[in-house]
Amino acid sequence: MAESFRRAGGLRERLHFQQRGDGDDGMGGPGMPGAGEFETVFTAAAGMKPRTGGEGVDAARLGGTQPFVVTVRNTTNTREITVAWQLVDARNEARIFAVVSPPADPDGKNQWLEFLATEGAPS
After folding, report:
1. 116 contact partners, CB below 8 Å, separation of at least 6
2. Position 112 pLDDT exceeds 60
3. Where exactly are the structural domains of the chain?
4. Compositional bias (Basic and acidic residues) at which positions (predicted)?
5. CATH architecture of the region 10-119
6. Which residues of 6-37 are buried (b: 16+ CB within 10 A; e: fewer)?
């Protein structure tokens, strides 16, 4: 039987959901939106199901990627997630995930959201 994250006991991960803050323009003017460091907006429970990984060549180096399907409850906060956000594992801050697809309602019941994230810091 396939593991289902669409139940309360299936959300076993704690993730910090982060987006970039305003950056300093260096001249004392107003900050540039989205040009600063990542800041935690909220923390939530999530289910993470690994998908088939892949390898890519970048600058003559072979690098592996591990995508995950992330399942979260449908809330006001989780509906704000975009591909500009990143996720950080609350239990191991070295694990950083880049959001690569916007959240979608998998069953049309407005209870859960699923999106794709890959392990590795976003660029």
Report:
1. 51, 67, 68, 69, 70, 99, 100, 101
2. yes
3. 10-119
4. 1-23
5. Beta Barrel (2.40)
6. eeeeebebebbbbbbeeeeeeeeeeeeeeeee
Q: Report CA torsion sign: 66, 104, 113, 121.
A: positive
Amino acid at 44: A
Q: What is the pLDDT of residue 36?
A: 79
User: What's this model's pTM, rounded to 2 decimal places?
Assistant: 0.81
Tokens read off for 101: 């697809």
Question: What's the alpha-carbon Rg for the chain, to the nearest Å?
Answer: 16
Q: Answer whether 32's CB lies under 8 Å from 59's CB.
A: no
User: What would the two tokens of residue 52 be?
Assistant: 């088939």
CA 88 to chain centre: 7
**CA distance linking residue 85 with residue 19, whole number of Å:** 5
Of 28, 48, 42, the closest CA to residue 118 belongs to 48
